[in-house]
Amino acid sequence: MTRSEKHIERQRPSFKKRLFIFFFICISTFAVLSFYLKSTIKIEAPPKDLGQKIIIQLPSGDHIYTYENLIVKENGRLYYKGDRSTLDLTGGIILYEEWDD
After folding, report:
1. DSSP three-state, residue 93
2. Is residue 50 a contact partner of residue 67, using CB atoms and an 8 Å limit?
């Protein structure tokens, strides 16, 4: 048997075919791992208890809709303390009423 006959007899898959199989395996492995990790890792923030819904009626006639735990009384004054701001609501009347979101 000559060398050329041996080469024809044991043909291996071409380079393009091997490259395609390699990329297919890599992409499928990445897809399976990402799906698995997304399904197992769940980070949820704990629910915040903001208290009862209230309405503050200001002397000017305006109304402020907020929650009870965001209102603070200090030194005889009434303050709204949110995440980023503090408002002075002195002189406002607190009404404990339900309001729609």
Report:
1. strand
2. yes
Q: What is the Rg, in whole angstroms, of the alpha carbon atoms belonging to the chain? A: 34
Q: How far is residue 12 from each of residues 9, 17, 21, 22, 28, measured CA to CA in Å?
A: 9, 10, 14, 15, 24
pLDDT in tens, 67-84: 989 999 898 898 999 888
- Find the helix or strand (DSSP H, E) in which 11 lies: none
Residue with tokens 């992409």: 27
Cα dihedral 86/92/93/95 (nearest 10) = -40
C-alpha to C-alpha distance for 3 and 9, rounded to whole angstroms: 10
Which are the contacts of 99, defined by CB distance < 8 A and separation ≥ 6?
53, 55, 65
- Residue 86 has a CB neighbour count (10 Å cut-off) of 9
**pTM score above 0.70:** no
